[in-house]
Structure formats: structure tokens, C-alpha cells
């Protein structure tokens, strides 16, 4: 079946990044289709999504502009006002404090499922044409070179000026385009779950570096029984992650308490746990003809700085800014070509460079800190302490993480 007319954009993949892209493009008056292989399960207040993100201020501003932040905030979002980072081998501590940085909060902890749910509803309300469940299976350039033709598993063929590949780390679109994306496996997994504890989390993100990898506690809304609760991301060697997924809750909590050794009091309960593989993967380019790669399709980074989804949303923020520079849209008939590659080249250079700097910086930090050799062990507490005692350095680190 062939679709009539040419769409402005087709977004493939309705994770957080793809759905934000479809919504943002539709809000600019473009005709947009969104293709997703899996029907998302609706978000439920009583079953928090294990995958949570620390969303940085620039991306909260994006969600505000997209008109979804209020709906997310009224459902559940936890502000964090402090971050404390220290090393298990001792030394100083790096502290980010909202008051000292002149902010109400440093960012917000939000569930993946809630973000997708509210973005998805807003996208449908903004007129995005949804193809779900359906899968992209082939991509070709039209004969006149002015559009791309995407074939879906249902037999539908979509033509568009711009294709946004938001189809995740194994991106079929990236592979079809032959874009190289070397992958480096860290041999670590991110173990996630919710932990109840006896003392308040004080709206603070806590991160302790251990020889096996960093352990982070991110503040979350109180549990139904009123206990303070945090979400953890524990980066561990593969075999330790497997073992800790398999042990019973009491054994898990005992090991977690030893590893954290932090100020949250007794660890009193744990939810279901899951783990995801940690890798660095950078696509050689984020632009191929009329197609842009965004989110995990373009880059996967170590979660130690909580930047994974933030980098993906920054791809969208920059894309929307680039396209809006081409003039106001009337939403009806436009002759300008949103997918023309000359428009997107600068976007590609900037986004590729931001992703590469982040990926290699996090990797260097992970190498120095997930290590029990003598020299790095002696260095790192000292480095954290030095950064923590130098306000200009703290401020510069914070501004980079916050996307300001
Ligand atoms: C289990 C797990 C837990 C994680 N936990 C954390 C965490 O705690 N903190 C953190 O910061 N990061 C976490 N991450 C990483 C984070 O989830 C990603 O950085 C972020 O979700 C990337 O979003 P995305 O929209 O780019 O891609 P994705 O969320 O991967 O979305 C890609 C979408 O594309 C769809 N798709 C793929 N192929 C096709 C096709 N051919 N046709 C149609 N649709 C297609 C998929 O169904 C999927 O919905 C986790 C990752 C995983 C896998």
C-alpha cells in the first residue's frame, strides 16, 4: 500500500527520544508520522518503572516547551537539590549544592514509562500519525532524490523529506545506511531497582565509586508505606550483576549496605531488580542523506553521569532549533525542504562532538575510578576533594552536566 503525498518527517522508534522528536516537529507545524514496533504499556502510579532518568535543566526546559512537563510533574517527578560524589578508598568529596549554584533544584528524577506515556499522548493530540505496532523493514531514496521512501512490515510505504532514526542502540536504520558504530563493551551491567531506607534521601543524588564501578542512589517519591525511597544504578562487573540479580532480597540488601556505606540509615526493602549492559557506542556520523540519527541509535554512554537520555534529548533540542531557523511555518503548504542536508550538517557536527566528548570523558572517569591499582586509588579521592574545594571547577562541571 502506498501513502498519498510526502510527509515532512517520519520518526522511527517511539522511545523517549523519538516521541519527543515527533511531538516537537509536529508543534512546528510539520506533518509527521511515528513508527513503533511495540505497543508501550501504560504507566501506572503503583508500579514505578525501574528505568529512571536524572533529567537535566536544559531538557526540563525542552519538556516545558513541548507542553508535557506539567503533566509529568503532576503525576510524579522528584527534584534533586544536591549531588555528593565520593570514593570508597577515601579522600575528598565532590558536592554540588543547588543553593550555592543559585538554583531551586539541580534536575529531576523521572521514570522512563511516565515520560513516554505523557509524550505519546501529547504527540497524538498534536496530530502525529501513529503506526504502531508496525516495523520499518526497508529504506530507499526516491527517484528524484527529494524524499525517502520507508517500507513498513504492514506493507505501508511512507514518503518523507526527513527521516529521524530513533530506533535504539541496535538501530536497523543505521545498519541499513551502512553507518559504522563501533561498540566497546565495558564488561559491566547497570543494576537498577528501588530501595526503601530508614532515613530521608534529603533530595540528594549520592554516588560512591567502588573498584567494580560506581553505585548511585537517586532520590524518589516515598513508598506507599511512607518509607523514604531511592532508585539505584549500580555498575558492576557482569558476573557480579548476575549473582546479585539471583540472590534473595535479604542477601542483596546486606551486600548493597556494605557497598554503599552511606547516610541513608538501614536499607529496609528492595523492589524487583533488572540489569542492562553498559557500553560505549558512537555512530561515525549522525547524518546520512535525509536521515538523522538521534538518541541511542547515535550514541550510548556509561550511565555514571546520568547523561544517556539527556544527550538524546539534546539531539532533539538542537534539531528543532536548526529547523525553526528556516522560518515560521504555516502548517499548511510549505515549499522549504526540512530534510535538505545543507541545513543539517552543522547540527551533525555539533551533536557528534558533544556525544564523543561525553562518551570518552565518562569512560576515562570509569577507568580511573573502577580500578584498585595503587596510583589511581591514591589520585582519585584527592581529585574529587580538589574539585569539591574549587568553586569555579564545581560550577564548570555542573554547567556541563546541566546543559547550560
Ligand atoms: C533495560 C535498560 C535500562 C536502562 N536504565 C537506565 C537508567 O536507569 N538510567 C539511564 O540513564 N539510562 C538507562 N538506560 C539507557 C536509556 O534507556 C537510553 O539511553 C534511552 O532510553 C534511549 O532512548 P531512545 O529513545 O534513544 O531509544 P530506545 O528507548 O531504545 O527506543 C528505541 C525504540 O525504537 C523501536 N524500534 C527499534 N527498531 C524498530 C523498527 N525497525 N521499527 C519500529 N520501531 C523500532 C524500539 O521498539 C524502541 O521503542 C537503560 C537501558 C536499558 C536497555
Keywords:
404 residues, alpha+beta, FAD/NAD(P)-binding domain, D-Amino Acid Oxidase, Chain A, domain 2, nine-stranded mixed β-sheet, eight-stranded mixed β-sheet, 11 helices, globular, binds flavin-adenine dinucleotide
Please tell me about this protein's structure.
There is one protein chain. The protein has 404 residues and is of the alpha+beta class. The protein folds into two domains: 7-43 and 51-77 and 110-181 and 283-366, FAD/NAD(P)-binding domain, CATH 3.50.50; 83-109 and 184-278 and 369-402, 2-Layer Sandwich (D-Amino Acid Oxidase, Chain A, domain 2), CATH 3.30.9.10. The chain is 35% helix and 28% strand. The protein has eleven helices and 20 strands. The protein has helices spanning 16-27, 57-65, 69-75, 112-125, 172-176, 238-246, 249-260, 308-324, 341-369, 374-389, 391-402, and strands at residues 7-12, 32-35, 52-55, 78-80, 82-87, 93-97, 107-111, 129-131, 136-141, 148-152, 157-165, 183-197, 204-210, 213-220, 229-237, 267-270, 274-282, 287-288, 291-293, 299-300. The strands form three sheets. Strands 5, 6, 12, 13, 14, 15, 16, 17 and 20 form a nine-stranded mixed sheet that branches. Strands 1, 2, 8, 9, 10, 11, 18 and 19 form an eight-stranded mixed sheet that branches. Strands 3-7-4 form a three-stranded antiparallel sheet. The protein is globular and about 65 Å long. The termini are far apart. The model has no long low-confidence stretch (mean pLDDT 89). It binds flavin-adenine dinucleotide.
Amino acid at each position: 500500500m502506498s501513502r498519498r503525498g510526502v510527509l515532512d518527517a517520519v520518526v522511527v522508534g517511539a522511545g523517549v527520544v523519538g516521541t519527543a522528536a515527533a511531538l516537537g516537529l509536529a508543534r512546528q507545524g510539520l506533518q509527521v508520522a511515528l513508527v513503533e514496533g511495540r505497543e508501550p504499556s501504560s504507566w501506572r502510579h503503583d508500579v514505578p518503572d525501574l528505568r529512571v532518568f536524572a533529567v537535566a535543566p536544559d531538557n526540563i526546559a525542552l519538556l516545558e516547551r513541548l507542553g508535557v512537563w506539567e503533566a509529568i510533574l503532576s503525576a510524579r517527578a522528584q527534584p534533586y537539590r544536591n549531588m555528593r560524589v565520593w570514593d570508597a578508598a577515601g579522600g575528598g568529596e565532590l558536592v554540588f549544592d543547588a543553593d550555592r549554584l543559585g538554583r531551586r533544584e539541580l534536575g529531576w528524577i523521572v521514570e522512563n514509562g511516565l515520560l513516554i506515556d505523557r509524550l505519546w499522548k501529547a504527540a497524538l493530540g498534536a496530530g502525529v500519525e501513529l503506526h504502531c505496532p508496525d516495523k520499518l523493514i526497508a529504506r530507499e531514496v526516491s527517484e528524484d532524490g527529494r524524499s525517502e521512501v520507508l517500507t513498513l512490515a504492514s506493507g505501508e510505504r511512507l514518503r518523507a523529506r526527513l527521516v529521524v532514526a530513533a530506533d535504539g542502540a541496535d538501530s536497523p536504520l543505521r545498519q541499513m545506511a551502512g553507518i559504522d558504530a563501533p561498540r566497546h563493551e565495558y564488561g559491566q551491567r547497570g543494576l537498577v531497582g528501588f530501595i526503601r531506607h530508614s532515613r530521608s534521601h534529603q533530595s540528594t543524588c549520592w554516588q560512591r565509586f567502588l573498584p567494580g564501578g560506581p553505585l548511585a542512589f537517586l532520590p524518589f517519591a516515598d513508598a506507599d508505606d511512607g518509607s523514604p525511597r531511592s532508585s539505584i544504578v549500580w555498575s558492576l562487573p557482569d558476573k557480579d550483576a548476575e549473582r546479585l540479580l539471583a540472590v534473595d532480597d535479604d542477601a542483596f540488601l546486606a551486600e548493597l549496605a556494605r557497598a554503599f556505606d552511606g547516610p541513608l540509615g538501614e536499607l529496609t526493602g528492595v523492589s524487583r531488580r533488572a540489569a542492562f549492559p553498559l557500553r560505549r557506542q558512537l555512530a561515525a556520523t549522525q547524518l546520512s542523506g535525509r536521515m538523522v540519527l538521534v538518541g541511542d541509535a547515535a550514541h550510548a554512554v556509561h550511565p555514571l553521569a546520568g547523561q544517556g537520555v539527556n544527550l538524546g534529548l539534546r539531539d532533539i533540542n538542537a534539531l528543532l532549533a536548526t529547523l525553526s531557523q528556516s522560518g515560521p511555518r504555516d502548517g499548511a503548504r510549505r515549499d522549504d525542504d526540512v530534510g535538505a542536508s545543507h541545513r543539517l550538517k552543522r547540527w551533525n557536527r555539533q551533536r557528534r562532538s558533544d556525544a564523543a566528548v561525553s562518551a570518552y570523558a565518562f569512560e576515562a572517569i570509569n577507568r580511573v575510578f573502577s580500578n584498585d591499582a595503587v596510583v589511581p586509588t591514591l589520585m582519585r579521592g584527592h581529585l574529587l576533594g580538589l574539585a569539591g574545594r574549587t568553586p569555579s571547577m564545581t560550577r564548570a562541571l555542573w554547567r556541563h552536566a546541566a546543559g547550560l
